[in-house]
Amino acid sequence: MGAEDEPMLPMVVSHVCRHWRYLALHTPALWRRISLDSRLRMWSERIARARACALDVEILPEALPITPRLGRHYLDAQTAQLYMHLVSPYLNRWRSLTIDFQHYAPYLWNATLSDCCGFGPKVQAPRLERLSLVHPNNDDTKEYTLFNGHAPLLRSATLNGIRLTWLPSLFANVTFLDYTHHGFTRGQDAEIEIFRMLRVCSRLQELRLAFPTHTRKMMRLYGSPLPAKERVHFNHLQALTIHVEGADIPSALIALVARFHYPWLRKLTLSSSVPLSTTPRTIHDYPFSPHTTPFFSRTRKFQRALPRLPSLTRLEIKHAWCRLSFVRDILAQHVPRLEKLKLHSASVDDVFLWGVGEVCRGRYRVLHNRDGMSRVDHTPLRVLEVVGGSLHGNGLIDVIRGMLSGGIMWVKEIWVRDCEAVRDDVVERAQRFGVRVRVLPDSYSLKQKGGSSGFVGMNSGVFTWTWRKAR
């Protein structure tokens, strides 16, 4: 376990004493992680010590040499090809391949993946389980066919800045896909490309789609549009994350969402890099428009294209997606069984919560059957979480009072994070009304006290663990 987190741990363990060294040298799994850098002789010896174990090959930014002239980590195509020549003879033993380039250099993918492309059993990866290829600054439009189309054990794929040939023999068994569109195609071409790509992955359980802002040259690949009734069926998909970095929702994303069918989707996350308060309205942000364009103006079109989600229980909305009209429409028309709602935006204030409460109260229905018996059809929110909102203590109490005066409890717990105006006294006052309010630790206190500063899911167990650790 430690060797997977720290690649130099086996070297440290083997230098403690002769007994530890004997155990380390006779434990091949300790040496399986190969984080390539300029120390090629050391990595060659570690491959030998791994014996018949499957190898975890990686090229990470922090392991790259620092160029004196540039003063930063940099790797050119020739050096990258030299690194891969060391491990390419053992390609049939690769368990994972992780390549992360955060700088620009010409022909990096061409040099790094040259030994992974070709024909014959020598370039096949029968033991490969995880694949991660990240190069956001790539400008090479070449399409790569990896491993002769043979990786039957591949289950996880993370792709950013690369075009691949999407073969069923390579990606049909993938259950986790994190795909960031390369930006070489847009509009209808991007829709067709991603549609054909996802149609191969019929066993996906978690899908992450990201559309960054790229100013790259565009390619025209497809002439005719897709048939109107063609769909992608995700019968195993449990979690879907959609991330947009630009000033508006891409038209390709809206068209794709209308073609998706996921009857068992449990969690949906909509995020953006730009907060709602940041509204670019310059010609530089919209170079193809002669006039200014409203910021994130296609949320209505996205909401109409989104199908009904009968099994969804968790919904997370971040930043620019977090508009009151959009959230109201989603709650009213798409998620009848929602249990947890997370709103991450500074635009979430007391008025915003009033609007959410009105929609949740409107979902209360009394149904009458043929025998004259009636039953209540109402699923209240179990948890409402607000992160970085503009809530005030008295305003939150007023929302709770309004909920009680209406006679319908539309939420059982309210979690608040990074809201300075909500203090512990609000928690005590809310408990008198029978509603539990939890003030979770902010990101700064988590960093100072050793807690996690990254993304924390909406699982209650995860939140309880983070809260106790911060205390």
Short description:
The protein is 30% helix and 21% strand.
Give keywords:
21% strand, two-stranded antiparallel ribbon, 471 residues, 14-stranded parallel beta sheet, 30% helix, 16 helices, disordered C terminus, alpha/beta, single chain
Describe this structure in words.
The protein has 471 residues and is an alpha/beta fold. Helices cover 30% and strands 21% of the residues. The chain contains 16 helices and 22 strands. The strands form 5 sheets. It has a 14-stranded parallel β-sheet. α9 packs parallel to α10, α11 runs parallel beside α12 and α13 packs parallel to α14. The longest helix has 14 residues. The protein is globular and about 75 Å long. The chain starts with a helix and ends with a helix.
Q: Kindly state the number of beta strands.
A: 22
- Assign an overall shape: globular
Quaternary structure classification: single chain
Mean pLDDT: 82
Low-confidence stretches: 278-292, 444-471
Distance between the termini: 27 Å
Helix content: 25-40%
Rounded radius of gyration (Å): 26 Å
Instruction: Describe the largest sheet.
Output: 14 strands, parallel
Number of contiguous helices: 16
Strand order of the largest sheet: 1-2-5-6-8-10-11-13-15-16-17-20-21-22
Output the structural class: alpha/beta
Beta-strand percentage?
15-25%
